[in-house]
Amino acid sequence: MVIVYGSSLALLLSLLQIMELRFIIYDHAFEVYAGLLALLFTGIGIWLSVKLTAPRVERIVVEKKVFTDRSAPFLADEEALAKLGISLRELAVLELMAQGLSNREIAASLFVSLNTVKTHAARLFEKLDVQRRTQAVERGKARGLIR
Amino acid sequence: MVIVYGSSLALLLSLLQIMELRFIIYDHAFEVYAGLLALLFTGIGIWLSVKLTAPRVERIVVEKKVFTDRSAPFLADEEALAKLGISLRELAVLELMAQGLSNREIAASLFVSLNTVKTHAARLFEKLDVQRRTQAVERGKARGLIR
DNA sequence: ATAAAAATCACCCTAAAGTATGAATCGATC
DNA sequence: GATCGATTCATACTTTAGGGTGATTTTTAT
Prior knowledge:
homodimer, 147 residues, mainly alpha, 7 helices, DNA-binding
């Protein structure tokens, strides 16, 4: 690179020598030379900078929060479901619990008796290792069982 | 920028004039001037390049699935809070409800009696227009009162 | 200073939730 | 055909939640 720099400087100087022979020398010859030099080497500087410096890349990492899409079809985490041994009915009960339904309403919604909902709930709580429906909902969401 | 450029050129020229008066003029005076000029304006060119070129911005969007952001500090929606007329204590009860605590546990957590928790809960339900704690939690999240 | 809102607690009662145990039915699997 | 898991339901009991009412004490705002 030093070579390029040096030789371009030499080239310029000889160019100026030739010019000096060819054109009339007037009062402001020096200023003209200096201006030309300045322009040329400013250009060279820019060129050097652009060519030699690593491309400046400003990396902006934007965290985009995607809270579980409510419109898209939700698929329960099958793995977690299997691992915990939670049945489809128990999951259904959990889903309705998460929607704020009472056991009676869940029973009506699933066309089963209140007692049935209670047994499902009890087994669900056991499998999720919780004591209350609010905890079950919380854990169910954390495990990807419900949205 | 043109002003800076022009004035620095003028400055250099006058500097050289002064130098010319002060020091002896030898054979390679011109080459020295030219070299100095070249160096200076190469530097200016580089500086210009670095300063003026816009950095290439690489925007990386990382989609982060967040069901509830537990790490970031959460601020309850003050507007919604005020609009519904929910007090700080009621909000506290709601938060603990959302964590699955029973009224008794909430009472212990807030150092108040069970009855107090019940009154807070009752008023909260009234203001949120719900009948059950599970619904309150759901609605509270939807309104941005809790996370 | 006083009125309003917030926070506290109590008592009573009903409804809902949760626990425990037992049992019948059905489908799949061995 | 026996076994197992899932689903269904029942009865009995305890605990928790929720509704209604009233009251006292702070705190806050006018």
